Amino acid sequence: MSGPRAVIWDVGNVIVRWSPRTLYSQIFSDPAECDRFLSHVCTMDWHMATDCGVTFAENCAALSAEHPEYAREIAAWQTRWSDMFSGAIPETEAAIEALHEKGVAQFVLSNMSHETFDDTFAMSPAFGRIADQVISGHEGVIKPDPVIFRLACQRFGGAPEDFLFIDDGAHNTEAARALGFHVHHFTDPAALRPALEAAGLL
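Above: the chain's sequence. Below: its structure in token form.
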């Protein structure tokens, strides 16, 4: 298998830092209550519907009907969404610029609501180096479904082996690897540039 010629980036916790806890630790003074809320009310499984294209308003309304005692806190998932972010990851921004200087094509494949796409892409000038993107909320399908990886290949104009796919979720990188992508499981920002160098991209 030859080396990759382009990079496909995930967004959350790869380009920008995102965690619901960043917001809800401000709302709940008791860490244990915050833990309970995020593990039993506003869970990642519940949030997944917005990544599939359901609006925040619909998803929050349905959950508030189940947990009316948390209606205000659930609403914050929509109204204070930006407070879940804590800035861009400098090592990734630097890598994106370095790849751009070398003429390496860069794309995004992300599980993300269609409602938050514009605001998220405004968080770093690095997003200006992205040639095209596949966003789950626009497509109605999420990683690690093979369908969205195949769609990315069609849109970005290449076969899986042409791309290095970078994601913080091991389930996503393993799904991509099974389809023939080169992959890097993003866990440590300091390991990013060495991985790009090892792939022959920098």
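The longest strand covers residues 105-110.
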